[in-house]
Specification:
The complex is a heterodimer of chains A (229) and B (255). Chain A is mostly helical. Chain A has one domain. Chain A contains 9 helices and no strands. In chain B, α2 crosses α5 and α3 runs parallel beside α5. Classes of the chains: A mainly alpha (229), B mainly alpha (255).
Chain lengths: 229, 255
């Protein structure tokens, strides 16, 4: 199973390295979003000055995670798209790969891509928005746990909509309600990591438990999800 | 030949029973029940709000049961029960949210309270089941739709549990559970029923009325879904038959 997962993850990362869809399209989009969100939030900067900057600082964690969610939806869509042509998913199954392994591999590939993207986008956002950083360890733990939660739960629901023609518009509808608790917890934990408010580790732990739950669900259900497509 | 219909003796009786109960409910909710000392007249919205959540819970639970039994037995019957129940659940969830918003506007002065976990989790539950209904209309084979929606139907029950315990888990401004089994068992009628039992009686009546409506809708919806499924199969059989005739005619002309 883990060998299969490793093969699938390596395959997806290789596809990304040669096609650069995430790196050359989703990443610039996310950076653009960082700048746009900053501009929109501070439109009253001229009249209100520093007060408006405080608002930007306060909403920075929320804005960052909203952008990361958009990027995640795109990355998940891409992850499904590379399998959808020429009945590739059926081919993977016929090659004798374990469905749980396929799930783990695809989720791992999304996890790695998102993590790389979030590092760059997060650095840009928190620098541009001028936020303090109280705890590097908590921030790192939060980003890791959240990305794992997003990749695992997102992969389950992306598989639910795989093979349909309206996949791109339907997947967000399925995923966003599920990601809502993740977004809430991630925002609270990040606030705590940036501004030094207590309680961040609890949120981080909750995120980690959520992702474990969905890794389990994904490993159990991928078999059924891939059965008919 | 009888006019084609999804009615039966059972549904006609149930429908008439519902109409009778509804008449009684209108009397109870609008005349018999006094205005609440705190909520004033808006307490009457509760007689729509609370029964709606009862029907929505039951429906989503049925979706869960149907999904489990579909996966276990691959029975089309349970798959269609799950699908029909989800539609009824979403319908009553809409009523629930709107009646709650109107009630909130009257009582709290706002339509939407962003700090109310029960309201927010209900909204999430609502969107999850709308997603479920969207999935049922995807362009996949019937089996694939049944399988995938069964998984979503099973996972969706998690949101129902969160909604139910939201008040307990996160203390908030949302009303405590109006009918608390513990309170009923111990005979204390605090909270909303503090003044008299007329609120309780009306609420129980309203729940029975809405349950009858929910069941009536469910049976009809299920029968329509069942007929749709059969129609799809007949279409396939007819198409196969047509191709057979074509090939037979072709072979005949060759000779």
């Amino acid at each position: 199973m883990f060998r299969d997962a490793w093969l699938i993850a390596k395959k997806d990362i290789r596809i990304e390295l040669s096609s650069k869809v995430i790196f050359a399209q989703v990443l610039p989009f996310s950076l653009l979003f960082v700048v746009l969100a900053g501009m929109v939030v501070t439109t009253d900067f001229v009249t209100k000055g520093a007060e408006s900057r405080n608002v930007l600082e306060q909403v920075a964690p929320a804005v960052f995670w909203i952008i990361a969610t958009f990027a995640a939806i795109m990355a998940l869509g891409r992850s499904q798209a590379v399998e959808s042509s020429n009945g590739n998913l059926d081919a993977l199954r016929m090659a004798g790969l374990d469905p749980a392994g396929i799930f783990l591999g695809k989720a791992a590939a999304v996890f790695i891509q998102l993590l790389a993207l979030e590092l760059i986008v997060g650095f840009a956002a928190f620098t541009l928005y001028g936020v303090p950083l109280a705890s590097v360890g908590l921030l790192a733990a939060t980003v890791l746990a959240t990305t794992l939660a997003v990749a695992s739960s997102g992969m389950v629901y992306a598989a639910v909509a795989a093979g349909t023609t309206t996949r791109e518009t339907f997947v967000p509808l399925l995923i966003l309600p599920v990601l809502l608790p993740v977004l809430l917890a991630a925002t609270r934990a990040t606030e705590s990591a940036l501004f030094g408010v207590s309680g961040g580790w609890n949120w981080s732990a909750a995120l980690f438990l959520f992702s474990l739950l969905y890794v389990g669900i994904g490993m159990l259900t991928f078999d059924v999800l891939m059965e008919e497509s | 030949m009888a006019k084609p219909s999804t009615s039966s003796k059972f549904t006609i009786t149930l429908g008439l029973l519902f109409l009778a109960w509804l008449t009684g409910m209108l009397f109870l909710a609008l005349i018999y029940s006094p205005a609440h000392p705190e909520q004033q007249e808006s307490v009457r919205l509760m007689y729509i709000h609370l029964p709606s959540i009862a029907v929505a819970y039951t429906a989503f639970f049925l979706t869960f049961i149907g999904s489990v039994l579909y996966l276990a037995k691959k029975s089309i019957f349970w798959d269609l029960v799950a699908a029909s129940a989800a539609e009824i659940g979403v319908l009553f969830c809409t009523v629930l949210l709107f009646s709650g918003m109107l009630w909130g506007k009257k009582t709290w002065g706002i339509y939407w309270d962003w700090e109310d976990p029960q309201l927010l989790s209900t909204a999430v539950m609502y969107v999850v089941y709308i997603g479920y209904l969207g999935l049922r209309r995807m362009d996949l084979t019937a089996e694939a739709i049944s399988l995938r929606s069964a998984i979503v139907g099973i996972l969706g029950i998690g949101t129902v549990i969160v909604v139910h315990y939201a008040v307990k888990w996160w203390r908030s401004g949302h009303q405590d559970r109006t009918i608390d089994p513990e309170k009923l068992a111990t005979g204390t009628t605090e909270g909303i029923f503090q003044i008299n039992d007329r609120y309780l009686f009306t609420t129980v009546w309203a729940i029975a009325t809405f349950m009858a409506l929910g069941l009536w809708l469910l049976v009809h919806r299920f029968r329509v879904a069942w007929l749709e499924r059969q129609l799809a199969e007949i279409d396939v059989e007819e198409a196969i038959e047509l191709r057979r005739q074509e090939s037979a005619a072709y072979i005949g002309s060759e000779r």
